[in-house]
């Protein structure tokens, strides 16, 4: 068995164990954010499995693993400070979705999508490292350096967006505690140019990881790009669902939708008011995933 095949088998085994564990925990605890709690941990593990299979001598694989680790550390910190690892720290959207489904349908959804598909996706987004492992002959070059810089830029952007969201949520809590008007949702800082700049940066980082695989293989037409495509579709669907909740909670959110780009940062269609606020969907305890 080749090193690439052996590493993939290890990762598939870890993924299967993660699916079984997160599903069982969700059934036992009636909390459905166990995949969210593993979201920032599993991809770095998979990336390091591939890097170790390459003997830690392939600079592309090592760089991918290091970048994935930085991504995971930042996301874990942000998730933890929002209480995501505490009992009851469930993403509010699972409860909202559960109210829209029968108990049987939600149980099936939990098994197939929450525990199954999302765990599989966490493996798929790291497959560019598996592609890189199969192409050790492709030298680490200028394209890889550009990809590394882009990844770090998107990582910095997501860090800024999450900090702005965190600062807003804290000030919002103080205002509400004092009986002040709830500002509702954030539309200053990066949120003036994108309703979900953190989502955009998250997607972009994994497209960069897919880019490493494309550089190694010499083409985008290989399995390593599939994870980035599916992650993008997941975030698009999650954004639509999140915003349906935001619209029902905040009367001014529809106007915000008309003025500001959903994901890709872009100048607002008209000057955004300096009202403030975090969309109900941008302040959950979810680690950055949808």
Shape: globular
The low-confidence parts are 274-286
**Radius of gyration over all CA atoms, rounded:** 20 Å
Strand content: under 5%
Average pLDDT, rounded to a whole number, is 91
Q: What share of residues is helical?
A: 55-70%
Number of strands: 0
What are the key terms here?
mainly alpha, 67% helix, 290 residues, 11 helices
Kindly describe this structure.
- With 290 residues, this protein is mainly alpha-helical.
- It is built from eleven helices and no strands.
- It has helices at 3-29, 34-38, 42-53, 59-81, 92-99, 103-124, 127-134, 142-177, 197-217, 226-249, 253-259.
- Helix 3 runs antiparallel to helix 4 (59-81) and helix 4 runs parallel beside helix 8 (142-177).
- The chain is globular and about 65 Å long.
- Mean pLDDT is 91; it is low at 274-286.
Can you describe this structure in just a few lines?
It contains eleven helices and no strands. The chain has helices at residues 3-29, 34-38, 42-53, 59-81, 92-99, 103-124, 127-134, 142-177, 197-217, 226-249, 253-259.
Outline the secondary-structure elements.
Blueprint: H1 3-29, H2 34-38, H3 42-53, H4 59-81, H5 92-99, H6 103-124, H7 127-134, H8 142-177, H9 197-217, H10 226-249, H11 253-259
């Amino acid at each position: 068995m080749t090193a690439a095949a052996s590493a993939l088998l290890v990762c598939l085994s870890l993924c299967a164990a993660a699916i079984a564990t997160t599903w069982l925990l969700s059934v036992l605890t009636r909390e459905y954010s166990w995949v969210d709690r593993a979201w920032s941990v599993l991809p770095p593990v998979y990336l390091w499995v591939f890097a170790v299979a390459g003997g830690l001598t392939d600079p592309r694989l090592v760089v991918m693993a290091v970048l994935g680790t930085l991504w995971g550390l930042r996301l874990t910190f942000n998730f933890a400070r929002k209480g995501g690892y505490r009992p009851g720290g469930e993403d509010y959207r699972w409860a909202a979705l559960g109210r829209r489904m029968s108990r049987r349908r939600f149980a099936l959804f939990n098994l197939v999508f929450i525990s199954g598909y999302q765990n599989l996706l966490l493996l798929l987004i790291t497959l560019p490292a598996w592609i890189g492992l199969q192409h050790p002959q492709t030298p680490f070059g200028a394209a890889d350096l550009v990809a590394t810089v882009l990844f770090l830029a998107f990582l910095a952007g997501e860090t800024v967006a999450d900090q702005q969201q965190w600062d807003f949520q804290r000030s919002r809590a103080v205002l509400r505690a004092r009986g002040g008007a709830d500002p509702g949702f954030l539309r200053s800082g990066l949120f003036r140019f994108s309703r979900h700049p953190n989502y955009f940066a998250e997607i972009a980082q994994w497209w960069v990881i897919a880019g490493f695989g494309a550089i190694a293989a010499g083409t985008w037409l290989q399995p390593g790009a599939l994870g980035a495509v599916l992650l993008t579709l997941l975030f698009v669907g999650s954004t639509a669902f999140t915003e349906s909740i935001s619209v029902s909670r905040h009367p001014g959110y529809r106007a915000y939708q008309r003025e500001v780009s959903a994901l890709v940062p872009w100048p607002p269609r008209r000057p955004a008011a300096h009202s403030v606020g975090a969309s109900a969907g941008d302040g959950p305890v979810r680690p950055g995933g949808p």
